[in-house]
# Entry
Amino acid sequence: MQTPPPFIKRRYKGGFTNTDRWARFTPRSGDVFVSTPPKCGTTWTTTIVAMLCAGTTDVNSARSVQWLDAEVVPIDDAVAALQAHEGRRCIKSHTPLDGMPYYTDATYIAVYRHPIDMLFSHRKHTANMKGTAPDHPYLGDPETGLKFFLEWELDFDDYDDGTLASLVRHYLSFTDPARPGNVHAIHYSDMLRDARGAIGSICTMIGGDPEDPLLDEIHEATKFRNMKAQADRYAPFANRDFWHDTGAFFDSGGTGKWDGKLSNKALSDYRARISAMMSDQQLGWLENGSAGP
# Structure
């Protein structure tokens, strides 16, 4: 394994991720890093942050938010876009906190979702992504996908598997009780329950005024139906022939879409696996946010 850049603790590599790319990153005071496991509200959150940073809803987050540690965009292009960006910047990642550079004058926001919601969203995401291998386990029936999701072991050199092990690794890194005060975690279900309140909380995290009238405009602009209707403005890599259907990147939103689609045995296997990986308190928040167990 290669030695990671000196300002990060752990190197992650995968089909998209390459944390060696952080060596090309030049920080600015006020940068906002949004890092989530895949399909946990990344695009929703980065778009909110991009609008807050720009002070307007007239934002094309598909272009302005850079996923620096992903190899989809050539590193020279990503770096040039960040350098040319005026004002505060939002940088996207799916990397755990120990694989990212840490700066005391930046803000870090992680977003989480019920693991099975993540899986079911990831299955549709995988089917919509060009280049997916036809035998990918997420393209099969739900229980085959769940089996892969539960059993695949964490591999730092093949990190982009979208499995439970990588989700838990990310979650524990960002929710460590000893984390710095500029590192925050929010939950997708809480965002769904009170989107306007969540926007206010994110605004506070990055040092803004949660009573600014702009937040009401952001609330309207980032409703699911409005983002789906303008997928070319918001879906990542919208201009790179990456998706079969760019609009389908925004599938349906919501939570609990897997209800009734998995057997009791499959759900029992999930419960046994994840309960061995974290405490009941940690699991209660990961699954349900502030609503608890």
